[in-house]
Amino acid sequence: MLAVHLENGIVSTQQTPVPQREPGFALLRMLVGGICNTDLELQRGYYGFSGTPGHEFVAEVVEAETRELVGKRVAGEINLCCTCCDWCRRGLGRHCPNRTVLGIVRHPGAFEEFFTLPERNLRVLADDLPTERAVFLEPLAAACEILDQVRITAGERVAVLGDGKLGLLIAMRLAAEGYEVHQFGRHREKLAIAERAGVATEIPEELPKAEFDWVVDATGSAEGLRAAVAMTRPRGTVIMKSTVHGGVTLDMAPVIVNEISLVGSRCGRFEAAMPWIGNPAIRLEEMLSDRFALAKAPTAFARAAERGVLKVLLMG
Amino acid sequence: MLAVHLENGIVSTQQTPVPQREPGFALLRMLVGGICNTDLELQRGYYGFSGTPGHEFVAEVVEAETRELVGKRVAGEINLCCTCCDWCRRGLGRHCPNRTVLGIVRHPGAFEEFFTLPERNLRVLADDLPTERAVFLEPLAAACEILDQVRITAGERVAVLGDGKLGLLIAMRLAAEGYEVHQFGRHREKLAIAERAGVATEIPEELPKAEFDWVVDATGSAEGLRAAVAMTRPRGTVIMKSTVHGGVTLDMAPVIVNEISLVGSRCGRFEAAMPWIGNPAIRLEEMLSDRFALAKAPTAFARAAERGVLKVLLMG
């Protein structure tokens, strides 16, 4: 079968055997995969990754212990957790210390013709949900995670910093919940998508200071995080939604004097994203920049890394 | 009258006129002042302070518009707020953007024979409360502030990092609330005070990793803050309780991946500290290292800065 391979920053494709399905696992045939910023970071060498990447997907179940799953179209939770530690028992398998992660940590990813996941990770998709919307379930769950972690009073103003894919999903998701969302970015075409979803958007010459009780940093940069802190009012909260690599130098004195909270936030529950994935208020179709056959993965990765490009899909 | 003067890192005393009492203000005669780490930081040049320091005090009311206050023994909130902004209306005058701060920001401090504060800042002390306990009201309020900001479920384990004055107050206050408190420090004699208050204490060779859901950093150092983050379990909270000056370089990737919250925390409500200031479970007397007459302030500041010394008092 055809599999994407990532090693030393080089994306290639190769022929490999169809993987063996272990007990409790399903064998999946990839229908669509989405290239995420994390995939581009793996390519840049973070986490010393080598293997098949890919964790955003829609697939068809080919083999499974549970008969009813076979033939079904599914998406899936990407953390493969042990099910028996404290974290797993609390429903927080995403923090299981024994976990592997699809296409990220010690489990081959979805960018190959066939791959495996535990059956318990799978979510069967509604027949009327387009595959090219369903492929956004994983990043939409990451956007929803914010509301699992902090309680934002209905109707409050929330600033979103950054207009990448995750920033747009967050802004649209929060706007759909009824918050007054202000998104600050650098790309007019990207911000226009959020604007159509009811988000107030701006390409600011200078970012506001101490103006929001809630600020989501989705810039992925140390500079963005520092700006997010400066935008936050005393007693306010910065949600750190994108990974900044290496040491970030922050002046903690204003964080302490102004009693600001910084909340790290990563991937989220699929259950929280399911009610929203079919909702047209989240303008997922407009976030699709390009599609490539799986065999063209090297070109697709290069395209996804271009400035101004949003979601690039790999078609199985 | 005699007043302590701090300028360019030099503590001196000088003769100055008794201050004028403005409308709404009380004229206070200092009984006891406590030297705080913030005073030592002012001396080291942070905030470009020049003038009379001092914000921990017990005083006698000499003149006031409210007759009943005259002759009373009082402590006082240190933030002089405008009373009419959004923050003040929400009872958060400590964050009022128009505030001055006793002995810290544009209002002469308590380390002088007579000083002034708005009457609304004053708290009349119970007759049976010893003055040398009451002088801890301000730092005890800062310790109590933690429980105003975060909700820690009853009985949970909390780690306190650092065994300075604030670290001890925090550890004893949280232990008195019923939490299982583990304090990590470097001074056997200081930790012994918390130990007697029911805190489990330790001078560790190496700090634990990912072991606590709640960690209070009271070290005042960037290194301590980094250690506090490393001690915190996924989804846990670090309360940043002591000011670290200058840029702090933190690796934010584990904060984000483990969804850790960092909560800045500063001074607190006197109302929250009042029920505890007379409680012998908070072993304040044991935290007294030395007493000096106001005229000996230069010596007192030098003593307070010595390693191993806890609270140094100035006697009016």
Written account of the structure:
Two copies of one chain form a homodimer. Chain A has 316 residues and is an alpha/beta fold. The first copy, chain A, has two domains: 2-136 and 284-315, Medium-chain alcohol dehydrogenases, catalytic domain (Quinone Oxidoreductase, Chain A, domain 1, Alpha-Beta Complex), CATH 3.90.180; 142-264, NAD(P)-binding Rossmann-like Domain (Rossmann fold), CATH 3.40.50.720. Chain A contains ten helices and 19 strands. In chain A, the strands form four sheets. In chain A, strands 3, 4, 5, 9, 10, 18 and 19 form a seven-stranded mixed sheet that branches. A six-stranded parallel sheet of chain A has the order 13-12-11-14-15-17, with helices on both faces. The longest helix of chain A has 13 residues, at 137-149. The mean pLDDT of chain A is 96. At the A-B interface, strand 15, strand 16, helix 8 and strand 17 of A face strand 15, strand 16, helix 8 and strand 17 of B.
Helix fraction of chain A? 25-40%
Average of pLDDT of chain A: 96
Oligomer: homodimer
Note the run of SSEs of chain A as H and E. EEEHEEEHEEEEHHEHEHEEHEEHEHEHE
The CATH class of the largest domain in chain A: Alpha Beta
Beta-strand content bin of chain A: 25-35%
* Number of domain modules of chain A: 2
- The structural class of chain A is alpha/beta
CATH topology of the largest domain in chain A: Quinone Oxidoreductase, Chain A, domain 1
